[in-house]
Structure formats: C-alpha cells, structure tokens
Amino acid sequence: QLKQNYYANICPDVEKIVRNAVQKKFQQTFVAVPATLRLFFHDCFVRGCDASVLIASTSSNKAEKDHPDNLSLAGDGFDTVIKAKAAVDAVPKCQNKVSCADILALATRDVINLAGGPSYPVELGRLDGLSSTAASVNGKLPQPSFNLNQLNAMFAANGLNQADMVALSAAHTVGFSHCGKFANRIHNFSRSNTVDPTLSKNYASQLQSMCPKNVDPRIAVNMDPNTPRKFDNMYFKNLQSGHGLFTSDQVLFTDSRSRPTVNAWARNSAAFNQAFITAMTKLGRVGVKTGKNGNIRRDCAVFN
Ligand code: HEM
Ligand SMILES: [Ca+2]
Ligand SMILES: [Ca+2]
C-alpha cells in the first residue's frame, strides 16, 4: 500500500534531496527529461515499478536494459537516478533507506515539472525487485506500429484504461526517436502509398529529409516538432494536424474511439494535465513490490 508520506520519519527531506539532484542534472542536459520519463514507463510495464529496468547485465544474467526494446533508453535517465540516489545516500539518516523504484518515481515527477509540465504528489513505499531478465521484456512494451486495440489491450493489462493510455502517450511531447522507428511511414508505406496518408504532406517530407532511406541508425528526431523541450499539450494539436510521429501516436486521432479525447485535450491543457496526473499515479501503482518480494538496493544497478 503506497502512501505520500511514506518516508516522513525515515528520510523526511527525501523529496527535496531528489528534486535538487534532478534539477542539477536538468541544468546539465535537457535529455534528462525524456530519458527519465521513458525509463519510468519501461520500468513499470515490466514486472511493475520496481527498478528492474535499472539492473545491469552480468556474465550470468542478461538484464532488461539489454532487451532490444530498451537499448534506446538514453543513458541520462539512468544517470539521473544514480545522481539522486547518491544525494539521498549522502544523508546519514537516509542511507540505503529509500528504494531505487521510489527515487525513479520522484525523479520522473520532477523532470516533468522542470520541463514546464504539472507537478503532483507521488505515492511512495515501493521496494526494489529481485529479478531482471531481458526475456521478461518480451511482449510487455508497446510498439510504434500498434493500432488502438493493441494499445488498449497492453495498457489494460497494467490496469490503465484508454483515457490513461491517451494521456500517457502525450509523454511524446518531449524527446527523440530514431529514424528506424517510423521509417515504414515515410518510405514504401504500402503498395498504393509511399507515405502513410494519415501523415501531413509537409511533415512527411521534412521527415524524409531528416531520415533518408539509408540514414545512420543513430540519427534521431524530435517527437514534438513544435515544442520539443516543453512538456505541454502540443502533442494533441500535432495529432490533429497529422504531425503524430508513430502510427501509435497518429492512430489516437484517426480512430474515432479516441479522437474526442485528443480534441478535448488539444483544446484544454488544464484538463490534459489533470488526466496526465491521474494516469501517472495509476502507472506508479503497477506491480508494486512489498515485504519479501523486494528490498532496498544499495546500488540501483546491482542486486544486493
Ligand atoms: C503508447 C505507446 C507507446 C509507444 C508505442 C512508444 C514508443 C516509443 C518509441 C518507439 C520511442 C523512440 C525510441 C527511440 O527511437 O529512441 C519512444 C520514445 C519516448 N517515449 Fe514512448 N511509447 C509509448 C508510450 C510512452 C509512455 C506511456 C511514455 C511515458 C509516460 C513514453 C515516453 C517516451 C519518451 C519520453 C520518449 C523519448 C525518449 C528520449 O528522448 O530519450 N512513451 N516511445
Ligand atoms: Ca520493473
Ligand atoms: Ca512539447
């Protein structure tokens, strides 16, 4: 059972300590924002929010972070958690008392707010998981090619409804994608269309020039072409104008079942913020470990 004041007696200043460390990281690089946010999502969807994604592989265990779907997680997300954990552990009363899973949840709240998004209370009391394998990632994370039914099914498996899924997808209002993740939409889309017809013509040609056919696979583009460094509701306005980068983004507008939600949140950013907070809070409850099912790691990347 998570609660907001879980560390009140254990480490009363944990929120301030994490916030300061995250802010320092943010001042060094904006990439901390999308990287940490995506890291939290990929953690929670595989074995719950238990910091399993932070575990490093060893000679005897290929960990989650080395699954193909996690190889594009940016290092600055991991580094944000490591820095925040070090700041927490530097306070004697707090040393090894705050879980990596909770530090990731707090850091995620903080990066969203630092990028101009809403702030919200974070429920705490998660333990760190005892297992992390690449194999356990199979089929647990959504693919950019997904349609609405596939998205809804995968989010429902984590206790999230369609509105939650649409709200959380707006995380793509910040950050980058490698060209390969949407190449099918701009080159050889189908027999009748070179380009995905749900993509705006202008945007498609911009994407084609940034991501030509044999582009270096390391090249990445902003997912929100308008306000890439602002956590805002531009994501929904982009969908309305055919500027959704992935099939899984654009489908939220093309499918009539989710379009009204997209339109509502494009119009009303306060309503979006509220829905996003609700959905993030639900995401943070997924598969939480307590008791014998977890512990508090001394090093977030290594089992105790
Ligand atoms: C709805 C289904 C989703 C799909 C199919 C999806 C897929 C992807 C893909 C393919 C990328 C690009 C990775 C790369 O090439 O580097 C990406 C990036 C990103 N995703 Fe998602 N995602 C989804 C939902 C979410 C959710 C729920 C969140 C967080 C709440 C999220 C946060 C992010 C962020 C912040 C980035 C940018 C990462 C960076 O710049 O380092 N995504 N996503
Ligand atoms: Ca996890
Ligand atoms: Ca934005």
From TrEMBL:
Tree of life domain = Eukaryota
A single GO molecular-function term is: heme binding
Which GO biological process annotations does it have?
hydrogen peroxide catabolic process; response to oxidative stress
Q: Which InterPro entries match?
A: Haem_peroxidase, Haem_peroxidase_sf, Peroxidase_pln, Peroxidases_AS, Peroxidases_heam-ligand_BS, Secretory_peroxidase
Which Gene Ontology cellular-component terms appear in the entry? Answer: extracellular region
**By its UniProt entry, which SUPFAM superfamilies does this protein fall under?**
Heme-dependent peroxidases
UniProt protein name: Peroxidase 51-like
